[in-house]
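Figure 3 (text version): structure tokens given as input.
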């Protein structure tokens, strides 16, 4: 073993899971020393431990040691909450869409008619680097709600709207009919007047462009494709786009989800398949980092729950429907069913049981139920490339106290559950009208759900206060902003939760000679990095770490493929000395952008919290 070359070991370790590398480090001194001494092995381990996306390789020629410094230093600054804070004055009529590496990408809130008349184009988004803007402009109207950007793939997807002439059914210029009243904005929600009036027909087209262009004229990847569906009249304006890997993208409407290859515009899949109708009971969805489609299914089941004393009826049944996007085409005689159907504890029996089990304070509560409509729906936090699912349920206790039941499940556990619970196969000949996919409002009738008790041990389940907050998720981290603190006091009050399961096997990953990882944070920092460290802001108040307990079944053993679920939580407050209405949060793991509409002036400002070294 001690004769193996370190380069060969590095290639071998690239094929292993993180937990397997940690086990190797514990059982063999030579492997332990090889892991500690080889910076390439350390970089591979650190990237996986801190969940650095594979595509995020824009390191500008950094060495392995410098990359490790950047990752470890950013993680430490986030956990100690020591950002460098700067401000970015947003142009009128724009808000931050996302942050990526050194770029800030903004999006207009309304169409600039003067710009369109003067140049024949309008701005879809603007790329800012070092305060220098580069506008991305197109010569046609786009639906601003249907926009997707992936800088890692140099890709932007937009939807074009073209009115059909009532006489000859040919496309017609929208500007001449609707002018500047086409788009209106209220509280960051853009409503498209064209789509609210259904007395006409509209052709819809999808375009794929390079995001980064040398000239002002964007370069298209392929010709546009027509996605108009006249059977979904009235559903326009409620579409979403999501960019996947390997040239795939998802177009989501209220009741149908379609997967395309954006390079050729070939439709790869439809959820449900075309011959099976619609999925009306899906209320939210997310595509995980390991290529699974997860949707919250909330079926309308008649007489499932009796009418309460308040005269309202809540939902009794809810599920997580999981589809494996690596296996899209079942045999022709098999109905396309979810690979997993997991129970969400929403019923009048399961919800009180879960609440009383995780918090003994409510052991003798007389009434525990989910909030009444319309606040009784489980909410799946929608984000890109998540490493965990975050599901919340509004709970009302003794008809007075409001809480939130939060369920966090690492996405890798979903594939583990697939091996334990094989997919339920249904023959096409056995399908009835109200069976699988037959009833659009209850499409999975007849499929056995996996009870919450059989998968809850894999999740982190907690009961938190019901606050007015907004959240942003990246990797293993979730950041929540208390909205009222900024409105009332001009303070930025944040709650940070780190759900990385490897936080709970510290004896293996600690940064000393007994652990498997070295600390490079303070080795050979440049003068610029040291100077930047002197400008960091300390929070005005900070609640220390709180490590939530993990199930005994998973605690203490280093040999599980995925360590036990749990979280590290802490709260911080930063005084901004400026009251205002919070806008959208953006976070890329390195920079947090907090947007604000200042009181009085109405000025739009973005506060940028940089955690990199």
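Below: residues designed for each position.
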């Amino acid at each position: 073993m001690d004769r193996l070359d370190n380069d060969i070991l590095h290639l071998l370790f690239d094929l292993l899971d993180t937990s397997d590398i940690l086990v190797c480090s514990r059982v063999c001194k030579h492997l332990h020393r090889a892991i500690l001494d080889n910076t390439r092995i350390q970089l591979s381990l650190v990237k996986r431990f801190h969940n650095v996306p594979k595509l995020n390789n824009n390191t500008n020629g950094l060495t392995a040691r410098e990359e490790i410094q950047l990752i470890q230093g950013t993680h430490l600054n986030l956990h100690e909450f020591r950002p460098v804070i700067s401000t970015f004055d947003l142009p009128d009529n724009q808000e931050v869409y996302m942050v990526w590496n050194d770029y800030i990408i903004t999006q207009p809130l309304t169409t600039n008619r003067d710009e369109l008349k003067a140049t024949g184009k309008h701005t879809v988004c603007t790329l800012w680097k070092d305060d220098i803007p580069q506008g991305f402009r197109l010569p046609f109207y786009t639906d601003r709600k249907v926009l997707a950007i992936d800088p890692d793939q140099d890709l932007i997807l937009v939807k074009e709207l073209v009115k059909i002439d009532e006489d000859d059914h040919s496309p017609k210029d929208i500007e001449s009919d609707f002018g500047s009243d086409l788009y209106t904005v209220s509280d960051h929600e853009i409503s498209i007047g064209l789509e609210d009036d259904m007395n006409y027909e509209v052709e819809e087209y999808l375009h794929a462009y390079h995001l980064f262009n040398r000239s002002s004229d964007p370069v298209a990847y392929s010709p546009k494709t027509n996605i108009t569906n006249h059977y979904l009249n009235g559903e326009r304006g409620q579409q979403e786009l999501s960019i996947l890997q390997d040239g795939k993208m998802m177009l989501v409407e209220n009741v149908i989800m379609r997967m395309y290859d954006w390079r050729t515009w070939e439709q790869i899949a439809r959820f449900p398949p075309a011959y099976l109708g619609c999925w009306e009971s899906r209320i939210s969805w997310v595509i995980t980092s390991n290529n699974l489609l997860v949707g919250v299914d909330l079926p309308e089941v008649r007489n499932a729950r009796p009418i309460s004393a308040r005269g309202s009826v809540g939902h009794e049944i809810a599920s997580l429907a999981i589809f494996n996007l690596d296996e899209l085409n079942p045999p022709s005689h098999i109905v396309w069913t979810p690979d997993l159907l997991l129970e969400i504890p929403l019923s009048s029996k399961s919800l009180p049981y879960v609440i009383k089990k995780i918090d003994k304070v409510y052991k003798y509560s007389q009434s525990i139920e989910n909030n009444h409509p319309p606040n009784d729906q489980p909410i799946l936090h929608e984000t890109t490339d998540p490493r965990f699912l975050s599901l919340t349920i509004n709970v009302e206790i003794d008809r007075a106290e409001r809480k939130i039941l939060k369920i966090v499940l690492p996405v890798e556990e979903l594939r583990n559950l697939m091996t334990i619970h094989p997919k339920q196969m249904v023959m096409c000949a056995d399908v009835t009208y109200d069976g699988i996919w037959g009833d659009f409002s209850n499409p999975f009738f007849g499929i056995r759900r996996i009870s919450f008790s059989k998968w809850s041990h894999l999740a982190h389940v907690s009961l938190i206060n019901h606050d007015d907050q907004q959240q942003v998720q990246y990797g293993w981290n979730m950041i929540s902003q208390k909205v009222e603190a900024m409105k009332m006091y001009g303070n930025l009050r944040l709650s940070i939760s780190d759900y990385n399961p490897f936080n709970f096997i510290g004896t293996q990953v600690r940064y000393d000679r007994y652990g498997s990882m070295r600390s490079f944070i303070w080795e050979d920092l440049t003068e610029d990095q040291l100077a930047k460290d002197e400008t960091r802001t300390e929070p005005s108040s900070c609640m220390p770490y709180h490590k939530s307990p993990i199930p005994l079944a998973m605690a203490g053993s280093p040999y599980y493929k995925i360590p036990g679920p749990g979280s590290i939580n802490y709260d911080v407050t930063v005084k901004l000395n400026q009251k205002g209405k919070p806008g959208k949060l953006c976070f890329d793991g390195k920079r947090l952008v907090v947007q604000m509409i200042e009181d009085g002036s109405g000025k739009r400002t973005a506060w940028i919290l940089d955690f990199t070294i």
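The longest strand covers residues 155-164.
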